[in-house]
């Protein structure tokens, strides 16, 4: 069973996919979106779901540190509910607090340039979201 992990932002969606056994997450790509123009990358996600035979989607839920859900979290929930209906696929929300910061720290420690970090940060955050979920269910 393959699982897809998504880190949904206002400008990009980081995408990760699990291996066939559901043990490890690999970053696949970063999809450019534009919320203001109503471009959300749904078609590309649908293509990836079909290509990788994804059975479940895990979407990072950016909660506030006090465990409340703010506007970004509400946007992620709306995104997930739309995908669930459109793709007829199970969607799970995963607490993603600090994953982008953790991904940034890993890339800094690996001495990745600012320009390269910007290109991979969302994909890496998606990997961390998905791997956290996979570790939890095992």
Characterization of this structure:
This protein starts with a strand and ends with a helix. A five-stranded mixed sheet has the order 3-2-1-4-5, with helices on both faces. Helix 3 (99-109) crosses helix 4 (114-137). The chain has helices at 42-52, 71-87, 99-109, 114-137, and strands spanning 2-8, 12-18, 25-32, 54-61, 90-95. The protein has one domain (2-137): YqgF/RNase H-like domain (Nucleotidyltransferase, domain 5), CATH 3.30.420.140. It has 138 residues and is of the alpha/beta class. 46% of the residues lie in helices and 26% in strands. It is built from four helices and five strands, in the order E-E-E-H-E-H-E-H-H. The mean pLDDT is 89.
According to CATH, the homologous superfamily is YqgF/RNase H-like domain
Any idea what the CATH architecture is? 2-Layer Sandwich
How far the N terminus sits from the C terminus, by CA atoms, comes to 13 Å
Average pLDDT for all residues: 89
Helix fraction, binned, reads 40-55%
The poorly predicted ranges are none
Q: SSE order, as H and E?
A: EEEHEHEHH
Oligomer: single chain
**Global outline:** globular
The helix-and-strand class reads alpha/beta
Total helical elements: 4
Give the biggest sheet: 5 strands, mixed
* CATH level 1 class label: Alpha Beta
Side-by-side strand order of the widest sheet: 3-2-1-4-5
Q: How large is the radius of gyration?
A: 14 Å
In percent, how much strand structure appears in the residues? 25-35%
According to CATH, the fold-level topology is Nucleotidyltransferase, domain 5
Function: Could be a nuclease involved in processing of the 5'-end of pre-16S rRNA.
Keywords: Cytoplasm, Hydrolase, Nuclease, Ribosome biogenesis
Domain YqgF/RNase H-like: 1-103
Organism: Bacillus spongiae
